[in-house]
Amino acid sequence: MEGCRMMLKKCSIGRLREGMILGRDVYKDDMTILLGEGTVLTSKMLDSLADHDIFSVYIQAEDEEEAISAANPPLLGEDEERGEIPAEAAEEMPAKVVPKKERLQDDSYVRQYDEVFALLKKFYADTRTASRIDAEAARSLTRKFLPLCESAKAIVQIYNMETEEDYRLHHSMHIAILAGLMGQFLKLRASERERLIMAAFLLDIGTTRIALEFLEIQGYYSDAERRLMQKHVRLGQELLARSAFGTDEQIVGAVLQHHERNDGSGYPAGLKKEQICGFARILAIVDIFDAMASNRAYKRKRSPFDVFKILADDILKGRLDTEYGVSFIRHIGQALNGCWVRLSDGGVGKIVYIDESRLDALPVVQTMEGDFLDLNTNGNIKIVSLLTSEEVQGA
């Protein structure tokens, strides 16, 4: 209706009616969209929301009539009016709050990332056609990574990177950046931190001795394919043995042992904690984190906090190193404090508190409406993605 302001209202499932229009996307547990913004709700859709344990959603309304369809169904009760937000009255809360993916990163950081990514891609391509690793190129590349891991806030940047194309190279980029952060958390000497970064982007160098056609397989590996892929650690060790880094036990050990686990359940040798080098135990953690927190063509990424829970479980079971794992979760978790997030009910909020005493703690989030949500007790609401305050305000 001309002259009417469109409103967003948070509506509990019990108050939804056919004909209502969704004001924001609604997500399933795997963070795929169940119903999109602008969808006109049907009886079948209401059942689907209930089946997926969705307890509340945002709907559109015309504030003159409190209605959004020809059926003119009732909207929220007076006790829920605090959730009413004029879409045109607040710049930070338009009908679609979340900016598009390409706006989720800092432009300067993205430019630096792209420059280093191009160098890493060339390094891997050159290694594929050469008989040995170019040591000077590796050292130069290591120095290029340093500006990308100056602040733990880099986690927000790399989390929102598009990684489906050239996933393996993006993964090598990310674990090198995370390794640089770990070097800071652990207060390593500058030279040791640089060696850790180098070991990180060399972790998968053995894949340059595996056919590209195999590496381009999309989806989960068969048992035979998995056994072939697991050979990359020994192939990487052999490459390093012929390079200037062949005598560096930590770098060679990291490449060979980063899939080993403290309880002996890893590969290739089933080593236990005291047999696994320090770099490998550090990089095992960041390797797992990024693999789960990155999109692939066949698998969507998880929230960092979902991955923290998995890491914490592996630490408690003795699979991952306690000192390094606790340091990683606590520092990265605190780096996310103050970040803006998109929630699975379509809402946007700011992380205001994370309990450091619990490794698997979820954050407390303050919504745009001013409400506080403790995600530890509101299990039906999850974090979908990370944003920044500037991006939300500029959306």
Automatic annotation (TrEMBL):
Lineage summary: Bacteria, Bacillati, Bacillota, Negativicutes, Selenomonadales
Coiled-coil regions, chain positions: none
Domain of life from the UniProt record: Bacteria
This protein's name: HD domain protein
Domain HD-GYP: 146-345
Pfam families xref list: HD_5
InterPro entries found in the cross-reference section: HD/PDEase_dom, HD_GYP_dom
Species per Swiss-Prot/TrEMBL record: Selenomonas sputigena (strain ATCC 35185 / DSM 20758 / CCUG 44933 / VPI D19B-28)
